Amino acid sequence: RERNRVLETARKAVEKAQELFSGLEKRARQAVGLARKIGQRMEREREAERQRQELARQVEIRRQQDIRVAEEARKAAELESQKQHQQVLKRSRSRTLSRGRSRDPSDDLGPGF
């Protein structure tokens, strides 16, 4: 009789231990699933950050290219302006020389005469 009581107590203890273990096992599976979800979210966030940085890098490259193009256009416009100015000066000189000789030869003597 005492033996049966001890066996029954042991059986109940084993059942309780199995229930506890089953609960722990369930919680462990939940924890693993949660850890997996967290890991996936972190990976998505890392990928989004990588894409954001790549986009920012491309934007900066385009900005630098735009600056270079604008600078080259400015230089080209400046050169063109200088060329036009030189042409105007040449025309002006040639007109002055041809007009000056035909109208007043004393202009060719220079200042002080």
UniProtKB/TrEMBL annotation:
Positions of region (Disordered): 76-113
Organism: Acetobacter cerevisiae
Phylogenetic placement of the source organism: Bacteria, Pseudomonadati, Pseudomonadota, Alphaproteobacteria, Acetobacterales
Record field: compositional bias (Basic residues): 88-100
Lineage top rank: taxon: Bacteria
UniProt protein name: Conjugal transfer protein TraA
